[in-house]
Amino acid sequence: MPVRWFAQFTYETIDYIKQVHCPVTVIHSKDDEIVPFDFGLKIYEAANEPKEFVEISGSHNDGFLVSGEIYEKAWLKWLEFLQRR
Fold it and tell me: In terms of Cα–Cα distance, which of 39, 13, 15, 12 is closest to 28?
């Protein structure tokens, strides 16, 4: 992997999320070994309403599998909310 090439970019997610004005769902796991859980919480806190934070289990790449039912319900809830708007 060309890690150095990717590392030259900064992703100011906190700044970008403040510009989003649609429903936001942040799904994150305390077991994520790549993105710290606190970062997910900071993204959630910076987001505009309506917003929801969903905590799952599992690593960065398998959280959606480990927490399949929770993960699926979170997405369905977000989609239902969009349909009502």
Answer: 39
CA distance 37 to 77: 22
> How do residues 20-53 score in pLDDT, each as one tens digit?
998 999 999 999 999 999 999 999 999 999 999 9
Cα(32)–Cα(70) distance, integer angstroms: 16
- Interacting residues of 54 by C-beta distance below 8 A, sequence separation 6+: 25, 26, 27, 28, 70, 71, 74
Query: What does the CA dihedral 61, 58, 10, 47 come to, rounded to 10 degrees?
Result: 130
Q: What is the pTM of this model?
A: 0.81
Dihedral of the alpha carbons of 47, 42, 5, 63, in degrees to the nearest 10: -90
Per-residue pLDDT of 52-76, as tens digits, reads: 999 999 999 999 999 999 999 999 9
